[in-house]
User: What shape does this take?
Amino acid sequence: MTDTEKLGEVIAMFEASGLQTMDLELEGLKVRLKKKQGPAFSADSASRPEDTDMGKEEDTDPALQTVKSPLVGIFYASRKEGGEPIVSVGDPVKQGQMLCLVEAMKTMNEIPSPCSGTVEKILAENGHMAEFDQPLFLIRENRHD
Assistant: This one.
C-alpha cells in the first residue's frame, strides 16, 4: 500500500467518523484534518496563497459555482476507461446530477453538481490525482431573476 493510499484510507475513516478535527503524525509526516461546517460544495471566494489560477473566475462572477473534491483520490471524467465523459463543457446539469467520479480506496465516489446550470469549465485532468478541496469544475448557475 502506497503512502497516498494510506493517507486516503485515513481521510475516509475520518470523514466517516464523528470527529471534527484530527491530528496525525506518521513517519515524520504531520497531518491535521478538520471538517468544514456547512455544505461540502461552495463558491468560497477566499483564495489561499498557494492556489493557482484554477477556480479564480468565481471571485468575479457570482453566477459561477466551484465544485471541489470532497476527498483525495483519482479523478475520472467517465464511468469506464475510454468511455464518453459524464459531462462536457457546455452541458446543462441539474442540482445533484453526477459530474464525475473520484476513486479513493478502490471505491468510486460520485461527485454531484451543487446547483442547476451549465458546465463552464473542467479544471481537473482525467486519471490524475485530485486533492482534498481541489476545484474540479466551474458551473454557471441558472439564475431566475
Notes: The chain has one helix and ten strands. Residues 101 and 110 are 5 Å apart (CA to CA). Residues 38-55 have pLDDT under 50 and may be disordered. The first helix runs from residue 3 to 16.
